[in-house]
């Protein structure tokens, strides 16, 4: 009887010894006789039975096709350099071949020939794709130049330039230079309209062109500026005199002028000022327009 009881106790102990308590970050998950490691999200598990050590050894790893390694991320995998001497640009990605184009992809494109009008790019022989300006419609037209790498973005149909374009070049290059000059086809300044009254103040941060129309029945006025402006800043002032009576406008704070402007009824005048950072200096005026 005692022997039978002892055997039952040993069986119970053995059965309980096979239960494995599993916790994650100190939180109990369960206690079962089998622990199953399931790969997922790019994570892999390689396990082996180490009988001499009376244990199972598991080594975690990851699928590099899903999760990039540190070396892969820093291996210029998005760098596309075309050296074929043609505007039909071609390149091969240095880390691993691209398998397909997908909307949202970005690359750093370096070319050896300027794109004077239209051009295309073929990555890893997947097919030539047109390169366009950021709007996705217009050709680069000189905005993509040899030796000046630019980010490009695939929108699902074309590659769009993501850089500023037209930058760089030598001081004699009419498309731009490295001195900080800005070259553009057209720059239009904002115009600020000022209400006529006896004392007027220009907010010289609101724009560079101002228009004032005098009011019939009103008297003369004084025009001042909020500040002396920024060194090199220009402003233009258009004064339209009403047809009732001529108005004289004097210049107050922050202006150094050639004197009061005597208007003519029904006529307009223009004034041009430039700042030295402390005051506005009159450059020219035209009256009787």
How many helices in DSSP terms?
Answer: 2
Main sheet: strands, sense, barrel: 7 strands, mixed
What is the number of E strands? 21
Give the strand order, joined by hyphens, for the main sheet.
Answer: 5-7-10-11-9-8-6
Q: Helix and strand succession? A: HEEEEHEEEEEEEEEEEEEEEEE
Radius of gyration from CA coordinates: 38 Å
Fraction of residues in helix: under 10%
Supply the CATH architecture of the domain at 191-286.
Sandwich
Which of globular, elongated, flat, extended, rod-shaped describes the shape? elongated
Average pLDDT figure = 81
Looking at the structure, the CATH topology of the domain at 191-286 is Jelly Rolls
CATH class call of the domain at 191-286:
Mainly Beta
Which spans have pLDDT < 50 for at least 5 consecutive residues? Answer: 1-15, 165-179
Question: Span between N and C termini?
Answer: 129 Å
Beta-strand percentage range: 35-45%
Helix/strand-derived category reads: mainly beta
SSE blueprint:
Layout: H1 2-17, E1 20-24, E2 27-32, E3 43-50, E4 55-62, H2 70-73, E5 79-81, E6 88-91, E7 106-110, E8 120-123, E9 128-132, E10 150-154, E11 159-161, E12 191-194, E13 199-202, E14 209-213, E15 221-225, E16 234-240, E17 248-251, E18 255-256, E19 261-262, E20 268-275, E21 280-286
Parallel strand pairs: 5-7, 6-8, 9-11, 12-14, 13-15, 14-16, 15-17, 18-21
Antiparallel strand pairs: 1-2, 3-4, 7-10, 8-9, 10-11, 16-20, 17-19, 20-21
